[in-house]
């Protein structure tokens, strides 16, 4: 088990909104937790002196001017094998 620190940060990346300390199995578990714990613009996950990851919230992504991919409904498939319905 490893000790992880989660820092929720404001958009300037300096102001800490909250710090959460958790004991977890591995980095993958810590990253999954970070995705659920993000409150501010960014969350950083540290294990000791090592930065595991830094994740931006959706609000942060839009503040940076990045655009989210446009999601459109999927229409009927046109390149399926003849007679295939996709129902198993």
Give the SSE layout.
Layout: E1 2-9, E2 16-24, H1 27-37, E3 42-47, E4 50-56, H2 58-63
Task: Offer a quick outline of the entry.
It is built from two helices and four strands, in the order ββαββα. The model has no long low-confidence stretch (mean pLDDT 77).
Structure report:
The protein has 88 residues and is of the alpha+beta class. The chain has one domain (2-63). 19% of the residues lie in helices and 34% in strands. It has two helices and four strands; from the N terminus they run ββαββα. The protein has helices at residues 27-37, 58-63, and strands at 2-9, 16-24, 42-47, 50-56. It has a four-stranded antiparallel sheet. The radius of gyration is 19 Å and the shape is globular. It starts with a strand and ends in a 25-residue tail after the last helix. The model has no long low-confidence stretch (mean pLDDT 77).
Instruction: Please bin the fraction of helical residues.
Output: 10-25%
Order of helices and strands: EEHEEH
Number of domains: 1
Strand order of the largest sheet: 2-1-3-4
Global morphology: globular
| Class computed from helices, strands and strand pairing | alpha+beta
Could you tell me how far the N terminus lies from the C terminus, measured between alpha carbons in angstroms? 42 Å
Count of DSSP strands: 4
The low-confidence parts are: none
